[in-house]
């Protein structure tokens, strides 16, 4: 075949990064991963959780937590999904979520949003008073006590719970369970089930 | 060239009178069939079985023509091809368990190519679900990642609505396969509920028109381009935007390249056409996409077989991306101008927003030079042994202009893409995204049923042909006038090509020590068989096969040493395509 060989051909000067973004020599065009809290209003029907979770695993989104529960209206449920992704991944996760048929709306919550999780921490029962004292420092409560073990409930931000768990390590920690985050926007703003937005 | 077909030809005049369809429903199954008829379904491809029997029983009185396939994979591919050729969802039916699992490849294939298709699967009765009952599988679970949406029917009163909604979803917006799983007690159960008309659910909102200011900004970018290129993808086919695309490209004189699913959206005979881009695309298309400064991508998802490595894909270009699916925007290639909407409508908007055509005389000349420098070509030192490209080219010359080509997957698929000249949308029916060997035989059946008056030619490889050869029995039974051409290199050639190029010629499991004689197999199935070995017999054999009124198979014994070029190695730089083995070593 005629025509110049590969090394003799006209070549463009540009380049894109692995995220498909044109690299501007002035500004570095890569996105570092960031934490994003997505809130999804979904139809309260069987299979929704597996549909959402399998979407996240199939598309390799780096998921930190996913919680789900019913809302004030019996037909819908709300999911809070925390992911850690570079910017294009965050956008892609939102768009893919919106495509699912049972998903009514998806929003990314602002970083100021209220974010709470709950932990139950079971520790050895030999120093119940000390355990109660530490629990109170973190606004928690002993919710169960027996001869051998005390279980404490703590609610709060992820950081607060991390700190509480660290503090409890002075006792013999037997078991911990955490829920993952539930989150709501501050102020009067709510998620409207009748609007379908599609930003990019 | 003996003819042993013993199946009597069916005279269409004598076809059994069909009922006019369902008028009132008494069971879940009748509601299902009513929903299908109401949606305009005329054909179904499927295989019977225990759990789906009530639905088939209702089909007995229906106006829908059922084609019994040899394997459910065949039903799925036939339905997919039918959907692509007609634009209306093709229907595949299967029983529970193994019937449903056999559909999976076809569903995944349709999902990757956004082909409209609906699958109905039988399921064990609700009471047995979850108990590992005979022929039970979690069909909705298994098919979740390979369908646009799926449904588990849970009531006889609503099963018809589920089918209507699934049909609508398969067709609307970004098309794709949907599935409804039908427990036997639900289909047998009584109901008098007439299904609602096919409408998508309210949570589902497909954009039609792009944002006006975004279109204006994109149009300004395109008007100012020095080196513009339009990249037309399968979305142009799906949105019937081919006319708008042609008008737009010609009005503003912008060179056009296509993706593989976009073949036929822009006539390859047009001066502005540079052909297909990507791994086995033309030199001109790949040079143009690499060196352009504005790329207008319409209905493409920037698949890696198109882009090669993203770092070198259109690296200088501002990307204008038109797509109906917001999730395609900036998924693989960051879009500078995202235009979300239906391709036809957005092209109209775009046309209104364009002030001037880009000043690109020099660029068009450059593209023309590339077309001349890198023609699609093959070496024919002495015309022996038979060259596959020659077979494809000759067939193209003899065939009707609007003939439909279907393929398997491998080298033959690429030759069929390269050496056939595509002029019309919906004439290229291939497994583009999933790359499913075995797609060829059943997809030709679906295409012929969907377009009975159009010539259908299936190019297949010996390996691909063997994967679904049993569907030939269906083509014979239905007396479908299809010409199958097996480009027989006694190997799974594309794998062998990669082994020679990238695995030091270690041909592990890619050469067949023996392949059947496909002409004789064809005769055994009741089709007409031809064996083709000599270049001088090509024309005559093709004509004889075309003239045969029914399925014909040409077993074309081709040069086993022939490879597919140009080639961009996987993840490579589109501008550094290889034209031969020596180039491959350079890049
Ligand atoms: C179902 C399936 N299995 C395996 C492959 C991997 N594969 C890709 S191309 C190819 C060779 C195809 O051989 P053949 O159909 O004879 O066509 P040829 O390349 O020889 O033209 C194979 C095995 C595939 N694409 N699909």
From TrEMBL, chain A:
<dbReference type="InterPro" id="IPR019455">
    <property type="entry name" value="Acetolactate_synth_ssu_C"/>
</dbReference>
<comment type="pathway">
    <text>Amino-acid biosynthesis; L-valine biosynthesis; L-valine from pyruvate: step 1/4.</text>
</comment>
<dbReference type="GO" id="GO:0005829">
    <property type="term" value="C:cytosol"/>
</dbReference>
<dbReference type="InterPro" id="IPR045865">
    <property type="entry name" value="ACT-like_dom_sf"/>
</dbReference>
<dbReference type="InterPro" id="IPR004789">
    <property type="entry name" value="Acetalactate_synth_ssu"/>
</dbReference>
<dbReference type="GO" id="GO:0009099">
    <property type="term" value="P:L-valine biosynthetic process"/>
</dbReference>
<protein>
    <recommendedName>
        <fullName>Acetolactate synthase small subunit</fullName>
        <ecNumber>2.2.1.6</ecNumber>
    </recommendedName>
</protein>
<keyword id="KW-0808">Transferase</keyword>
<comment type="subunit">
    <text>Dimer of large and small chains.</text>
</comment>
<dbReference type="GO" id="GO:0003984">
    <property type="term" value="F:acetolactate synthase activity"/>
</dbReference>
<comment type="pathway">
    <text>Amino-acid biosynthesis; L-isoleucine biosynthesis; L-isoleucine from 2-oxobutanoate: step 1/4.</text>
</comment>
<dbReference type="GO" id="GO:0009097">
    <property type="term" value="P:isoleucine biosynthetic process"/>
</dbReference>
<comment type="function">
    <text>Catalyzes the conversion of 2 pyruvate molecules into acetolactate in the first common step of the biosynthetic pathway of the branched-amino acids such as leucine, isoleucine, and valine.</text>
</comment>
<dbReference type="InterPro" id="IPR002912">
    <property type="entry name" value="ACT_dom"/>
</dbReference>
<dbReference type="Pfam" id="PF10369">
    <property type="entry name" value="ALS_ss_C"/>
</dbReference>
<feature type="region of interest" description="Disordered">
    <location>
        <begin position="1"/>
        <end position="30"/>
    </location>
</feature>
<dbReference type="GO" id="GO:1990610">
    <property type="term" value="F:acetolactate synthase regulator activity"/>
</dbReference>
<feature type="compositionally biased region" description="Basic and acidic residues">
    <location>
        <begin position="1"/>
        <end position="11"/>
    </location>
</feature>
<dbReference type="Pfam" id="PF22629">
    <property type="entry name" value="ACT_AHAS_ss"/>
</dbReference>
<dbReference type="InterPro" id="IPR027271">
    <property type="entry name" value="Acetolactate_synth/TF_NikR_C"/>
</dbReference>
<dbReference type="InterPro" id="IPR039557">
    <property type="entry name" value="AHAS_ACT"/>
</dbReference>
<feature type="domain" description="ACT">
    <location>
        <begin position="37"/>
        <end position="111"/>
    </location>
</feature>
Automatic annotation (TrEMBL), chain B:
<dbReference type="GO" id="GO:0000287">
    <property type="term" value="F:magnesium ion binding"/>
</dbReference>
<comment type="similarity">
    <text>Belongs to the TPP enzyme family.</text>
</comment>
<dbReference type="GO" id="GO:0009097">
    <property type="term" value="P:isoleucine biosynthetic process"/>
</dbReference>
<feature type="compositionally biased region" description="Basic and acidic residues">
    <location>
        <begin position="182"/>
        <end position="207"/>
    </location>
</feature>
<dbReference type="Pfam" id="PF02775">
    <property type="entry name" value="TPP_enzyme_C"/>
</dbReference>
<dbReference type="GO" id="GO:0005948">
    <property type="term" value="C:acetolactate synthase complex"/>
</dbReference>
<keyword id="KW-0285">Flavoprotein</keyword>
<feature type="region of interest" description="Disordered">
    <location>
        <begin position="178"/>
        <end position="215"/>
    </location>
</feature>
<keyword id="KW-0786">Thiamine pyrophosphate</keyword>
<keyword id="KW-0028">Amino-acid biosynthesis</keyword>
<keyword id="KW-0808">Transferase</keyword>
<dbReference type="InterPro" id="IPR045229">
    <property type="entry name" value="TPP_enz"/>
</dbReference>
<dbReference type="InterPro" id="IPR000399">
    <property type="entry name" value="TPP-bd_CS"/>
</dbReference>
<protein>
    <recommendedName>
        <fullName>Acetolactate synthase</fullName>
        <ecNumber>2.2.1.6</ecNumber>
    </recommendedName>
</protein>
<feature type="domain" description="Thiamine pyrophosphate enzyme N-terminal TPP-binding">
    <location>
        <begin position="28"/>
        <end position="140"/>
    </location>
</feature>
<dbReference type="GO" id="GO:0009099">
    <property type="term" value="P:L-valine biosynthetic process"/>
</dbReference>
<dbReference type="InterPro" id="IPR012846">
    <property type="entry name" value="Acetolactate_synth_lsu"/>
</dbReference>
<dbReference type="GO" id="GO:0044272">
    <property type="term" value="P:sulfur compound biosynthetic process"/>
</dbReference>
<keyword id="KW-0100">Branched-chain amino acid biosynthesis</keyword>
<dbReference type="InterPro" id="IPR029035">
    <property type="entry name" value="DHS-like_NAD/FAD-binding_dom"/>
</dbReference>
<dbReference type="GO" id="GO:0050660">
    <property type="term" value="F:flavin adenine dinucleotide binding"/>
</dbReference>
<keyword id="KW-0274">FAD</keyword>
């Amino acid at each position: 075949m005629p025509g110049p060989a590969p090394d003799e051909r006209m070549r463009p000067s540009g380049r894109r990064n692995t995220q498909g973004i044109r690299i501007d020599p002035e500004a570095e065009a890569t996105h570092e991963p960031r934490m994003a809290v997505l809130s999804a209003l979904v139809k309260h029907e069987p299979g929704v959780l597996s549909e959402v979770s399998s979407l996240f695993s199939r598309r390799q989104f780096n998921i930190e937590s996913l919680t789900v529960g019913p809302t004030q209206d019996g037909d819908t449920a709300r999911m809070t999904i925390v992911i850690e992704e570079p910017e294009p991944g965050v956008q892609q996760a939102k768009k893919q979520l919106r495509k699912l048929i049972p998903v009514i709306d998806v929003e990314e919550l602002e970083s100021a949003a209220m974010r709470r999780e709950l932990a139950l921490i079971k520790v050895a029962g030999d120093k119940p008073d000390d355990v109660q004292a530490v629990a109170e420092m973190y606004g928690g409560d002993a919710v169960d006590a027996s001869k051998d073990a005390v279980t404490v409930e703590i609610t709060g931000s992820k950081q607060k719970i991390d700190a509480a768990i660290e503090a409890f390590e002075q006792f013999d920690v037997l078991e911990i369970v955490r829920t993952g985050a539930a989150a709501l926007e501050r102020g009067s703003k709510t998620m409207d089930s009748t609007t379908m937005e599609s930003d990019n | 060239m003996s003819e042993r077909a013993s199946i009597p030809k069916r005279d269409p005049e004598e076809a059994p009178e069909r009922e006019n369809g369902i008028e009132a429903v008494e069971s879940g199954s009748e509601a299902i069939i009513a929903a299908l008829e109401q949606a305009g379904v005329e054909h179904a491809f499927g295989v019977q079985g225990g759990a789906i029997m009530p639905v088939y029983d209702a089909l007995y009185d229906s106006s829908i023509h059922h084609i019994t396939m040899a394997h459910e994979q065949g039903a799925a591919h036939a339905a997919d091809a039918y959907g692509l050729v007609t634009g209306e969802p093709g229907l595949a039916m299967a029983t529970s368990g193994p019937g449903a699992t056999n559909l999976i490849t076809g569903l995944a294939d349709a999902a990757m190519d956004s082909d409209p298709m609906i699958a109905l699967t039988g399921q064990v009765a609700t009471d047995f679900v979850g108990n590992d009952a005979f022929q039970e599988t979690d069909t909705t679970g298994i098919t979740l990642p390979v369908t646009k949406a799926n449904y588990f029917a849970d009531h006889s009163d609503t099963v018809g609505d589920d089918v209507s909604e699934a049909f609508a979803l398969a067709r609307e917006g970004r098309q794709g396969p949907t599935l409804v799983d039908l427990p036997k007690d639900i289909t047998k159960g009584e109901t008098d509920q007439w299904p609602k008309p096919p409408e998508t659910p309210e949570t589902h909102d497909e954009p039609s028109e792009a944002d006006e200011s975004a279109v204006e900004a994109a149009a300004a970018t395109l008007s100012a381009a020095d080196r513009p290129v339009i990249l037309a993808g399968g979305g142009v086919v799906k949105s019937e935007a081919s006319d708008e695309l042609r008008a737009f490209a010609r009005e503003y004189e912008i060179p056009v390249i296509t993706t593989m699913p976009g073949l036929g959206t822009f006539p390859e005979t047009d001066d502005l056409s540079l052909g297909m881009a990507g791994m086995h695309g033309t030199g001109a298309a790949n040079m143009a996409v690499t060196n352009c400064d504005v790329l207008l991508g319409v209905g493409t998802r920037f698949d890696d077989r198109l882009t090669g490595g993203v770092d070198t894909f259109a690296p200088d270009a501002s990307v204008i991306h038109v797509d109906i699916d917001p999730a395609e925007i900036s998924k693989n290639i960051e879009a500078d101008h995202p235009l979300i909407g239906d391709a036809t409508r957005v092209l109209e908007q775009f046309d209104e927003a364009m002030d001037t055509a880009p000043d690109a005389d020099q660029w068009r000349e450059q593209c023309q030079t590339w077309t001349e420098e890198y023609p699609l070509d093959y070496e024919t030192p002495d015309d022996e042994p038979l060259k596959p490209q020659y077979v494809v080219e000759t067939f193209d010359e003899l065939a009707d202009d609007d003939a439909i080509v279907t393929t398997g997957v491998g080298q033959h698929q690429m030759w069929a893409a390269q050496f056939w000249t595509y002029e019309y949308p919906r004439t290229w029916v291939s497994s583009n995204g999933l790359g499913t060997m075995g797609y060829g035989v059943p997809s030709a059946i679906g295409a012929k049923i969907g377009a009975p008056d159009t010539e259908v030619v299936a190019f297949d490889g010996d390996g691909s042909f063997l994967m679904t050869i049993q569907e030939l029995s269906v083509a014979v039974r239905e007396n479908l006038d299809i010409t199958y051409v097996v480009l027989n290199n006694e190997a799974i050639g594309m794998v062998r090509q990669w082994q020679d190029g990238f695995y030091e010629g270690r041909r592990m499991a890619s050469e067949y020590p023996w392949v059947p004689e496909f002409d004789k197999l064809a005769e055994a199935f009741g089709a007409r068989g031809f064996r083709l070995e000599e270049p001088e017999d090509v024309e005559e054999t093709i004509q004889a096969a075309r003239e045969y009124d029914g399925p014909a198979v040409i077993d074309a014994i081709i040069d086993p040493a022939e490879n597919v070029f140009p080639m961009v190695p996987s993840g490579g730089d589109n501008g550094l395509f290889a034209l031969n083995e020596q180039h491959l070593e350079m890049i």
